[in-house]
Amino acid sequence: MKRLTAKLNGLTVLKWLIYLFFFVFLLVPLFSILLVSFTGQPVNIFGSFTSQKIFDSTIKKLSNISVEAYTSIFSEGNSYFAALMNSLKLGTGVAVLVTVIVLPIAYAFARTKMPFKSFFAALCTIPLIMPTFISSHAFVLMFGKTGWVTQLYHSFGGEGVLFDVQSMLGIVLVQVFFFFPYALWPMVAAFKICDVTLEEASQNLGAKSWYTFLRVTLPLAVPGIVSSMLLIFTVSFSDFGTPIILAPKELNLIVVESYREIAGFFNWAGSAVLTVIMLLVAAFFFWLQRLVIKGREYGTISGKPTKQKLNDHKGTIAGLTIYTFLVMLVPILALGSIFLSSIATTWGHHALPDGYTMSHYKTIFSTSGKNIWNSMVLAAGTLVLSVVISTFVSYFVVRRGSGGLDFVSSIPLIVPGIALGIALIQTFNTAPIHLTGTALLLIIAYTIRRMPYMIRSTMSSMMAIRKDIEEAAVSLGASSLIAAITVIGPLMLPGIAAGAILVFVTVIKETSISILLAPTEWAPMSLAVFQNLLRGEYYTACAMAILIIVIVIILQALAKKITKDQLY
């Protein structure tokens, strides 16, 4: 008994409560949606343990398990198969294009004396602060039939449009110009860690700069480049905001199809099958990315530190500077288009609005104040839950070597938002745990979706804290739990603050979870913008979008300031 009591200390109980949270709200929903894909009917797992009637019904459904839903996908003319192929083509195309476009920029940042690097780095945040469905609407404002770029094109004698923005090409372009920062910084890091002595040796042997880049520098950066490409594929494949705005009816994409099946037709079987396929594809490419990072190491070991010699060739620097600015100009113009639309009286007949007004901002504060309040409350609730769970997950992983928690907490990285939403709806749609349509389930979904980012932030802070500090507190009589809270906790504040604001920012922008799970009385700002776009209330939608972007910018600046103040 004493041995059992000794094991059941505060930290142990807390650890198992965290395991229970992941089991109830992540593992069971994913397993439940897997069962539905085989039975074709909703399965109430929790109800099966509390009601004999539900248990008998579940057994009956499980007795009719079939793989017909999966085999039928490969039948001729199946829309699901077309959606899968189109999504794979989209992800592959975006990944390749982003890699090709970003490669010169990453090299410029890492290996040249390109001016205005800080300015360009700041511009790179613009694509990250704009939700993709807002970016998609910005492209409509620019390249649509009445877009201002189209108007300029007509003024120079052009006819029609430059390209059909509501097409596969339009989706690809939006994702390329708004996902490239995800690949940029890993590729910059890949170029920076390359061993410069190998490049110097190549040049000393008479190789030209371009030959050294192609045969030495580029191969050394291959692991980082391939890893970035796989990451972009996963982000593109899982993106919901862009296709839901720009995909025409005849273009089937898996995220849109799964949303339509559950939201439009209440087809549990179809949505479950598509959800499982999304999970499998995302998991495979996530595993492939990890394999590339782990399995291909191109670094060299040297006891002598080397200083990188940055490329200062004037022609190269001028060309890379202009190229970098042109790539980053597209998100700037998109943001400017959203802002102009938010203050326009009417816009569509000329390149610029016909007039300007601030009435749209007055409208959103008078009619959508509830949405703004909802976003703040939901983000705050998510923040509290994320901070508590993520901090202790980091502690157990780093200090106690809990590989199980590390694995479970990483699962959300491979779960697309639309897939998680469908899984949660299916699991908590009936008694005994009926949470669908409540703010609580929305907060839990936000927490699970964004927690990995918080965990990575707190884990890096945890690794920097010496273990003997905690041991000193324990030796003075404090329990392990008290030592973790009162000693380790305050030292982790920089990582907690940075991760917390990151969670807050991403929750404010979250779209797919909000669209599926948010009840009317708890609709956040992102959902209000999306609904306004669908209703054709474009000006108020843009005003609300600008408000979201301003909040995100302020919070990111605050995170940067807090982190610097704490660390330096």
From TrEMBL:
Highest rank taxon of the organism: Bacteria
Gene Ontology cellular component list: plasma membrane
Keywords: Cell inner membrane, Cell membrane, Membrane, Transmembrane, Transmembrane helix, Transport
Pfam family, one: BPD_transp_1
Compartments, as annotated in UniProt: Cell inner membrane; Cell membrane
An individual GO BP term: transmembrane transport
Segments passing through the bilayer: 16-38, 90-110, 119-143, 168-191, 212-233, 265-288, 317-340, 376-398, 405-425, 431-448, 469-489, 538-559
ABC transmembrane type-1 domain boundaries: 84-289, 372-559
Family named by the database record: Belongs to the binding-protein-dependent transport system permease family.
Full protein name: Iron ABC transporter permease
Source organism of this protein record: Brevibacillus nitrificans
